[in-house]
Structure formats: structure tokens, C-alpha cells
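With this grant's support, we have settled on a layout for protein records. An illustrative entry appears below exactly as we store it:
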Amino acid sequence: ILDIFGFEQFQTNSFEQLCINYANERLQQQFNWDIFKAEQAEYEAEGIEWQAIEFVDNQECLDLIDKKSSMGLLHLLDEECKIQRGTDEKFAQKARQTHAEHKDFDAPKGDQLTFAVKHYAGCVAYLCSGFREKNKDTLHQDLAAVMQQSQAEVVLALFPSEAPERESKRAGKPKAKGSDTMTVGSQFMTQLSSLMRTINATDVHYVRCIKPNTLNKPAIFDMAHSAHQLRCAGVLEAVRISRMAYPNRMPHASFVSRYALLAPSEWQAAHEVDMARARAAAPGDESARALCEGALALVVEDVARYQLGKTKVFFRAFLLEALEQRRGNALATYAVVVQKMLRSALWSRRFRLLRLSSVRLQALRRRQVQLSEYRRQRAAAIALAAAGRGLRARILRRRLLAAVRIQAAGRAAAARDRVYHLRRRLCATRLQAAVRSHRHRSAFTARRGAALRLQSKARMASQRRAYLRDLAEKKEEAKLSTQLAKLQARLQAEMEARQNAERALEAGAAADEGSGSGAAVAGDGGGVAGIAGAAASWVLGNMGGPSTSVEETSTMLSVVTKDRERLGQRLAAETEARKRLEAEKRELERKLNMGSATSQVETRSHRQIAEALSRTKDEVGEKTRIMQNQTIEIANLQNTKTALERRILALEKKISQYDDSFYALEARNVRDKTRMEEMGKAKSRAEEEKNICRLMLEQAHERWLKERSDLRKDALQKIQTNAARVREQRMQIAELQQAHRAQRQLAEEAKMYKEQCTVLMEKLSRAGVGGGTTPAASPGGVPSPRARPGGAVAAPLKAPSAANLLEKMKSSVSSSGLLGRATSKESPRAPPPAPDAP
């Protein structure tokens, strides 16, 4: 993997930009040659007839920089660096003189230190200031030799040894002054030549990096800037070279499977089996090639725009785009046909469903109308039946109410009696509950008082026992303290006696001329006295407190007793030694003086040595503890280090896992993006179909609304007609009921009138029979009620009969419209009364 700088052009360009642009020129030439060679090799392998392709060759610009025979710019710079009095101005002047006629070299007249080189990407002006210093900035030869003798491979790779040819040339020629060191320019040319040899020996793939904008911000694409980078990188030139011959190519089987649908349908039907075999055929199959040739002859009219190779088909520029456009149009046509058939099937199905739904809705509507009519008639029948049943029920209800009142009175009397007994029982129960509650509360209070008294007695007894026990302990402690004080006084007296005895012994020894035995006895006595004094001081120090326990007191007493026994034994031993020493007193006088001095010196030295040993032991113990603590700390640090190393390994594993997951997520994002684009296209198509379906549904819905409104209008008209009919029937029923009631009333009135007429006729008949005069009488013999005063009799009047009165009443009723049709069915009128009726 070779990662290099791109073409550089700044306001001020120096030696570094010249080297970088020189390397880019060399790599651009290699890039153009690789593309040309790859195209040529593929054309020759496929047997394609082609013409030589002309492309821009930058060899002249490379010769201007590195050709030695024509003293290129880098060789001129090396020559100027070898001269001791060389300067940058002289280098610029030599470059102007040497390459003034070169087409890729330009030197502005205003600035003598500047020259320009026309690279493939553009013209760049270089400032010669500092060229010599930067070209001579090399590592010293001795340092390079030392680094070349290193055992590390990385160091040897960084400082390679000089080539054998160079060594042989140095061996055959005399060493010139200043020729032993290589300049930066010569090293750069040598390394670039080595790199080009490596590139020519490998299979090269190129990756061009394009910077979308100069602001270093996302989501901003500068087309002019990107096109300039593509032009500088040589990509546009490579595309031009590729498009000059046959830029597009495709295997035979792929062409047949992709573009066979552009051929006539008869040819497709005839070669259906061959196309299926060609899809699975290997590259270079003759059957696939023949099938591809036949398809090309039918699909492409211009034979000069393509060539048929051994394994691929090569197309001229813009031919594949035209085929893709034709294929897209054909697929769009087929898709429209498929969509048409699918929509036809869908809408046929929807129409059948809508028709079935409308039939069902109509059936339901008719059913509802008939059901409502049936319910209305049934309700009317039920109402008539309910009226009859209601009449009968009211009669029964009156009877039942009477019976219920009787039963309620009986049940009320029984309930009042039961409530009276329940109240008495409730009062008795409350009294019993109060008595039982008082009894149980009294018993509970008595038991609780007894329990409290028992608990207080028990606590008092336990407290009394604890008090007596503590009192006994305090008395024992006081007794022991008293005994201890007596023992201390006794010990003090014994010690004083011992001291007096020792003083007496010392005085006797001094009187016996200071013999050695007397001194030894005095020394032993002093040791015994010291031991006794130490024991007494320990006893006094440990027994002085008033709060010492019995166990500590007994321990102290046993210690004092033991010390006393030891003192007695030592006293006996001292007495015996004193006797021996009195016998040897004369012989050891001189030795005693010397021995006493020696013993004092030895005692002091031993005491100092013991103190030094104790201090050393303390120091050694302290250092041992410090070393142990340091060892523990070192172990802890090692454990911490091990834990950190494990954690670092775990973090490295997690980082690698995160990298893997990141790359997987990137791939997944690409797949998801492709899938989302496909889903977006499918969604747009679904939206279009949805809109079409929505329009069709809206139209169907409008039609359904119109049909429903029509049906509703028809139903309303029918309902209004039925309502008018019902109202007419109800009015007829009401008129019949009124006529029936009027007829009944008239019948009752006629009956009453008949009764009144009968009574009146009887009265008239009785009155006529009782009178003396016999005027013209009616057949019934009823006299005229209207007689004039003075006995004069008026003219006879016609009295209307009952039948006439009834007819007059009926006629008055019929004229008022009360009877209606009922009067038409009455019997014919009675004949008029006779003229001689009263």
C-alpha cells in the first residue's frame, strides 16, 4: 500500500513541493501506462480489433526534472551543491540558461529567483531560496555506516546500504572531493526509481481521494473544486482514454439474460431453452456466444458500435446507456400491462364484493322495513289486547286490593305483636350483656392486680439477692484492701529491718578491713534489697487502687509470698557465703579490692552492651516490620499490575471487537441504505397505487352515497305515504269511535225520551178519562193541555209522537256531522202521524 501526497501548489513553493510534484508526475505517467496496457491486454485477449489510443504523455516534463544528459533541474541542483561557492541565484540562472527553450519550463522576468514548471495538473512557480541547503541536508556518512551495522531489521530498512554498482564505481574511480555524499535530490530520484521498479513488478490498483470542500464541513459538495481535483489527479484523462475505444463490456450470458427481452417475442419463444442454458453457461461457451450474436443482430442495428469477443461483448460509448434506456422502457411497458391486469382483477373482485354488499344492504333494509311494519301491527294488536286485558285486570285489581287491604291489616297486627316481643327480647339481651361484662371485667381486674403483685414480689426478691451479693463483694474487697495494707506495712517493716541488717553487715565488713567476702555479701545484699524493693514497688503500684478485684489481689499476694520465699533463700545463701567469706577474708583482701573494681567495670559494660543489644533488637524488629510492609506493598503492586495488564488485554479485545462491530455496522448501514432506497421506490409505487385506489374508492363511495340518498328518499316517501295512510286510518277509527259514542248516546237519549213519552201519554190518557167534556180526541183519548180560560177551548193541536221526536233528534245529529256514516245504515223513518192526532 503506497500512500503519497497529492499535487501541491501554494503561494510559495520550494524544494519540497518540487520533489512531491516530481513523484506525482512519475506516478501519473505510470497510471496512464497501466490503464493503456490493461485496455490493450484485454482487447488482445478477446481478439478485438482496435486502433492505437493517443494520450497525453508527460515524459518531457519528467526529462526537464530528472534527465541527466540534458542536465535536468535536480542534476543542476546537485552540481551547484558540489561547488563550494555555489548559490541559489546561480542555480536559478543556470536553470534559465539551460532550459530556456523547453516547452514545459517558464521563467518570469520580474523575479530572477523564480522559475515555473508546467506539470500535468497545472503550472507551478518555484522559489529557489533555500534549494541548496535543503538539498544538502543529508545524514553524515559515518552515522549512516554505524546505523547500517545495526542488528535490528527496522534500522537496516531505514538506512539501506549503497548499491553494489556504486561501490564498484567508487572502487574503479578516484574519489573526488565532495562526491562521497548523496544529496537529497539524488536520494529521492534513486528511491523513486526503486519504487517504480516495485510498482512495475506488481498488479497495481489505484484509489483516488477527493476532498469535497475546503471548509472541512460535512454535507457540502463543491463541484468545481472536486472537478479540479479529478483533473489534477488524472482521472478525467484516464476516463477519456477508456472511452476512446470500448468503454463498456459484458459477458455473453449476462447480455443474453439482461437484454434478450428487447428482441422480438417470436425469437424469445424460439430460443427460450437456449437462454435458460446460457444463463448457467461458463465464460467462453460457444452456444452462449452464438445466442449472444443472434440477440445483438436483432437488438443493435449499427454493427460498428460493438464487437463480439471470446467471452465478452464490447460496446462503444453511449450504446450501453441506450440499451439500458430501451430495456427500462420495455420493463415499464410490461409493468404497466401487469399492473393493468392486476388492477383489473383487484377492481373486479372489489366490484363483486361491493355488489354483494349492496344486495345484502338492500335485503337488510327491506327486512328492517318489513320488521318495523310487523312490529307496528303487532304493537297495535298487543295494544288492543292489552286494553281488553287491562279492563279485566282493573276489575280484578279492585277485588285484589280489597283482599290485600284485609290481609295487610292482619299482617300488620301480627307484625306489631312480633316487634313488641323482639323489643322485649332485645332489652333483656342488653341487660344480660351488661351483667356479664361487669362480671368478667371484675374478674380480669382482680387477676391483673394479683399478677402485678406477684411480679413486684419476684422483682423485689431478685433485686434483694443482687444487692446482698454486691454487698458481700464490696465487703470482701474492703477486707482484702485492709489485708493488703497490713501486708504492705509488714513488708515495709521487713525491708527496713533488712536494710538495717545489711547496713550492720556492711559496717562489720568495713570493720574487718574491707575484705572481699564482706564486699560480696554487701553486693548480694544490695541485689536482694533491690529485688525486694522492686517487688514492693510493683506490689504497691498494682495494689494501690481501691477498685482492685479479688483475683488480682490474690495474684499479688502470691507474687509477694514467692518473692519473700526467694528473699529467705537468698538470705540463707548469703549467711553461708558470709561464713565462707569470713574464713577466706584474709586471703582475698587484695583480690577483693581488685575484684570489686573489675565487677563494677564489667557491670557497667554489660549494662551498656545490654542496652545497645536491646536498641539493636528494636531497630532490627522495626526494620523487619518495615521490610514486611514493603514486601506486602510490592505484592499488592504486583497484583495491581497484573490486574491492570489483564484489564488492558480485555480493553484491547473490546477495542478489536468494537472495530469488527463498527465495520459490520458500516456494511450493514450500506445494505440498509440500499434496502431503504428500494423500499422508498416501492413505497412511492405503493403510494401511487394507493392514490388510484383512493380515487376509485371515493368514486364508489360517492356512487354509494348517491344510491343511499336515493334509497333514503324512496324510503322516506314510502314512510310518509304509510304515515299518511296510518293517520287517515287513525282519523277514521277516531270518527268511528265518536260515531259509536254518539250512537250510544242517542240510543240512551231515545230510550229516555221513549220512557218520558210513555209516562206522558199515560198521564194524558188518565187526564182525558177523568174530564166531563169529550172533544175531538186522539186515538189515545188524550185531551189538549192548552185550554183557554173561561171554559173556551182552543183549536186542536197536533202532538208529536215519540217516533217523530226520535227522527228529529237523528236528523239534528246527522246535520251536525256526529253520526257520519252510521246514520246511513239506520232503519227507514216511521210514517208521519195521523192528522187527527192531538
Remarks:
- The CA atoms of residues 46 and 309 lie 5 Å apart.
- The first helix runs from residue 15 to 46.
- The longest strand covers residues 114-118.
- The two ends are 156 Å apart (CA to CA).
